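REQUEST ID: PR-0412
SUBMITTED BY: lab tech R.K.
PRIORITY: routine
TASK: structure prediction, single protein chain
INPUT:
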Amino acid sequence: MDQEDGLTAVDNIVTQFNTYEDFLDSQITTVDLYYLEDEGLARQLVELGYRGTGEVVKREDFEARKAAIEIARMAERTQKKTLTSAGKDLKDNFLKALALREEDNCNGKVSTVIFIRDRNSHGQEVSGYIDYAHRLKIEDFEVYFSGKRRLLPKPTDMRCVSDLTRPNLGLFCRT
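STATUS: complete
OUTPUT:
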């Protein structure tokens, strides 16, 4: 067994068990406990490699790998995502303002609420409040920053008012 296979086996053991004691306990059989009559002694024998049904892993190796895997998970979570507005030549002031706030909204440093009052493709007035951070999470803003689609409120936004029939009557949507 070469070193790469050994590291993979240790990684599997580390991810499978929460603590080193849990790993040791998994190596102890009921027959071991019957003859030894002491769980601590059985753990010591497994740790020294005299007993057990699997790979011998030292406490230091287990804890070091556990810490390394946790650091890798945290780094993966905090790894910066590429901003949708990055590299785009934005001519519209509204899109420029959204691009300035995109990173801070993605990271949770800022919360932006956008009020939009516009007309949809049917000529009906649509207005509403958009939680920019929420929409960035659930929707790809590439189409907005590239100019393929206009940003309009949706019924799933904080509040959407849509004039569907007459100018004085509107539909209120709340979430």
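NOTES: The CA atoms of residues 15 and 66 lie 7 Å apart.
REVIEWED BY: pending
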